[in-house]
Automatic annotation (TrEMBL):
This is ABC transporter. Keywords: Membrane, Transmembrane, Transmembrane helix. The chain crosses the membrane at residues 31-49, 69-88, 145-164, 170-189, 259-279. It is a multi-pass membrane protein. GO terms for molecular function: ABC-type oligopeptide transporter activity; ATP binding; ATP hydrolysis activity. The keyword Transmembrane applies. It comes from Nonomuraea glycinis. Residues 33-313 form the ABC transmembrane type-1 domain. One of its GO terms (cellular component) is plasma membrane.
Length: 562
């Protein structure tokens, strides 16, 4: 088997869900066509078995030993071919399923990384989770079913030709009976897909709520809201359960119809064929063949129904994937070259000088966050970086040179050492220096495996203050040209905050750093403080100078009234 996933998934066609599925099929056309060939041969061999079996019965009736041995040998050969083609069909079916599914995973993961902060603003957590949980499987299934679906159609056509050439009335009965069965089952597919869509949507909403509850569990417990949100989660969970039962009801009707309707056809074919055999219009062997064909056709018919179901699900899933892939990042870049230098936000007047530790204190915390986002090119604004407009620089270069580290950043699952040293280039001494500057040595020392300890999802084994210190260490290890820290000490105690402020100044000595904070302990250890009020610079100077000259600044940092 070829290795999966592909090194480069390519650029998808996202003009419509059907075009995306067709693009997927073309990307794996060789494996798809080979699998269809094996599946078609597999079905054809099975379609020939009833005819050979009938010939053998007629040979027994005629007491023709030689003919019986011949048809027995042919039947054995068909069995061997069926076994080989069945194995190869299954192998290619799995390969095509995995290819389409993994390709979709690669595309969505790559695009999610490209979107960055845009993704959670445009889509809920639950919708993204639904794509990973079910949609990629449905897209893979739409490729997988093409093999058996195509072969089933060929098998039905082959059987119809054999039956018509043997007995026109029986052939016509099967010819018209099979499509009628498909039409009878068809009306159940629409309500099934409608209920499946509602179930997926409710599941996505429930996933979003559960993620919100887990993320804010400590806060909910602190304000006594845990039971309220648990009750809401329970109610939504029951709605998901009822929706799932609704899906199961239609599925059970569909399964029952797929058994009852072919059973009626078998009864009709057998009864009519028996009357023809009694009248010597067909041989007993042909009667056995007709009965066996009627039973055999249940398989291809169920496969065709399954094909319609899976292709519809694949189309719905592709629509959701295309919706994600069609989202464009809020911020894009140009092709100019960055020289570096002074970072300036023209709207607010905030100027970050190279090689200095600057603090940004805002009367309203949201103002500091908005300015940090503009300076890091996470939102639009008239920002210059040296002589260049930040909007004209390649976005990848902006991300590499300007790092905005806020408290919305997450710790990911994996080894702690790898989580801190995201570039994989830091030495053991550099990691220790970053941990020291962030006052996070005690966190690592308390872990049984130290830096080799495994971090749980979102770092939930760490407290809020510990997560904040580890995130600060990670930002320091990244060592960007410009580091913008948003409230880096808001969740730590005063003693740790004082040590972090002192060590941060030394760790970033001679490097461009902006700290958005109103903590006097941090402000007192910076080279310059910029005080922002109503989104614009109101005063500049050292912390102590501003305490004396700006009553509004003093009120902000001392939590007083101005």
């Amino acid at each position: 088997m070829r290795p999966l996933p592909e090194a480069d998934p390519g650029m998808p066609d996202i003009r419509s869900p059907l075009r995306y599925l067709w693009w997927n099929a073309r990307r794996q056309s060789r494996a798809l066509l080979t699998g269809i060939a094996f599946a078609t041969l597999w079905w054809l061999v099975q379609a020939l078995v009833p005819a050979v079996l009938g010939k053998g019965v007629d040979a027994v009736r005629a007491q023709d030993t030689r003919a019986l041995l011949t048809w027995s040998a042919i039947l054995l050969g068909l069995g061997l071919v069926q076994a080989v083609t069945g194995i190869m069909r299954h192998r290619f079916a799995v390969f095509n399923w995995l290819s389409a599914a993994y390709r979709t995973v690669q595309l969505t993961a790559r695009h999610a990384a490209r979107l960055g902060a845009t993704l959670p603003k445009r889509l809920s957590t639950g919708e993204v989770v639904s794509v990973g949980n079910s949609d990629i499987a449905h897209i893979g299934g739409s490729m997988d079913i093409l093999l058996r679906g195509t072969g089933a159609i060929v098998a039905i056509v082959t059987v119809t030709v054999i039956l018509l050439s043997t007995s026109l009335p029986l052939g016509l009965l099967v010819l018209f009976g099979v499509p009628l069965m498909a039409l009878a089952v068809g009306p159940l597919l629409k309500p099934l897909h409608r209920r499946q869509k509602r179930h997926r949507d409710l599941t996505g909403d429930l996933s979003t709520r559960s993620a919100d509850i887990v993320a804010g569990l400590r806060v909910l417990r602190g304000i006594g809201g845990e039971q309220v949100f648990a009750g809401r989660y329970r109610e939504e969970s029951q709605r998901v359960r009822h929706a799932g039962v609704g899906v199961a009801k239609v599925e059970s009707l569909l399964e029952g119809a797929q058994i009852v309707l072919p059973g009626l056809l078998i009864a009709l074919v057998t009864g009519l064929g028996a009357s023809f055999a009694i009248a010597d219009e067909i041989t007993p062997g042909q009667l056995v063949s007709f009965y066996t064909y009627a039973v055999f056709l249940i398989g291809p018919m169920r496969t065709i129904t399954e094909t319609a179901d899976r292709l519809t699900k694949g189309h719905v899933a592709a629509r959701r994937v295309v919706r994600i892939l069609a989202i464009e990042p809020e911020m894009t870049g140009g092709t100019d070259e960055a020289v570096g230098g002074v970072l300036r936000d023209s709207y607010s007047g905030v100027t970050v000088l190279p090689g200095r530790l600057t603090a940004l204190a805002a009367g309203t915390p949201e103002d500091a966050t908005v300015i940090a986002d503009r300076l890091g090119r996470y939102s639009a604004g008239d920002v210059t970086f040296g002589p260049a407009d930040l909007a004209t620089l390649p976005i990848d270069e902006v991300r590499a040179r300007i790092l905005v580290a806020d408290n919305g950043a997450r710790l990911f699952t994996g080894r702690l050492r790898d989580e801190l040293d995201v570039r994989g280039t830091a030495s053991a001494e550099q990691i220790q220096q970053a941990l020291y500057a962030a006052c996070a040595e005690d966190i690592v020392e308390a872990l049984p495996d130290g830096l080799d300890a495994q971090v749980a999802e979102a770092g939930r084994e760490f407290s809020g203050g510990q997560q904040q210190r580890l995130r600060l260490a990670r930002a320091l290890l990244a060592d960007p040209e410009v580091l913008i820290l948003v409230e880096p000490t808001s969740a730590v105690d005063a003693h740790s905050e004082a040590r972090i402020a002192e060590r941060l100044a030394k760790a970033r000595a001679g490097k461009t750093t902006l700290v958005c904070t109103t903590s006097p302990l941090v402000l007192d250890r910076t080279d310059q403080v910029i005080y922002v009020r109503d989104g614009r610079v109101h005063a500049e100077g050292t912390h102590r100078d501003l305490l004396d000259t700006s009553p509004a600044y003093a009120a902000t940092v001392t939590r007083g009234e101005d």
